Amino acid sequence: MKKKSDERNSIIDYVITNIRSGVWKPGEKITSENQISKELHVSRMMVRSALQPLFALGMLRSEQGRGTYLVSKDTSMFLNTEALLEYRLPESEDYRRIVEFMQFRCMVEPPSAGMVAEHASDGFTERIGKYLGLMEKAASIKDSPAFVYADHAFHMAICRETKNELLISVMAHVFKQNEDHAFRLNRMVGYYSGLYYHRLLFEAFQEKDGRKAMRLMDEHLRHSLRDMMGV
To answer: Which regions of the chain carry the CATH code 1.20.120.530?
Structure first.
């Protein structure tokens, strides 16, 4: 059985291949969710979830009763292989620092997300919903700094909701000290993955599902780290 992350990746590979090969053209109707589901042997729900961020990015549009249409053939919001190869040098101090930055986050943020989700207030979900909206807006115009700031605000809101002053102080310092690395990471991994996981995390917080939030946060951070390391 495929992992959900593998299913999502197969859907995105399918999208990128169809766009870059010219099978899907701007202004034309794309393959239906049902057909993609059958071709890739994944659930229709997974297809819908994987495609959802592309609507927020303005890459796809849906017309009720008619289907989904390709708006833009720009695939730069996905993993940027050229930027990744340019940056990923084993002897690079910057590379080592950003790996450590992400490894630290993998250790700290998933349990925090799980704990917060179980007692998430309406005010908290409203705040992270606002930051998610800012991420979507920034991604749609490829404003990397605005995207990174909104992303950090989303994650810091989770930290603040723990009410743990030490965690809040440490994470604020870590994000501030690694801003440049975060900008570079965004340039390498693109916008899609961040939007995909933040949408799912937002839903987990709305549902007050601690286990789901912890799992998604772990998967989100490790996915970014794996993309960056090319493994």
So the answer is: 81-229
**Could you give the CA distance from residue 129 to residue 39 in angstroms, rounded to a whole number?**
34
Which listed CATH number (3.30.70.260, 1.20.120.530, 2.40.440.10, 3.40.50.1820) goes with 81-229? Answer: 1.20.120.530
In the block, residue with structure tokens 């992992």: 3
Tens of pLDDT along the chain (231 residues) come to 556 667 888 888 899 899 989 999 999 999 999 999 999 999 999 999 888 888 877 889 998 888 999 998 887 777 554 444 454 545 567 778 888 888 999 999 999 999 999 999 999 999 999 999 999 999 888 898 999 999 999 999 999 999 999 999 999 999 998 888 788 778 777 888 889 999 999 999 999 999 999 999 999 999 888 776 654
CB 188 within 8 A of CB 169: no
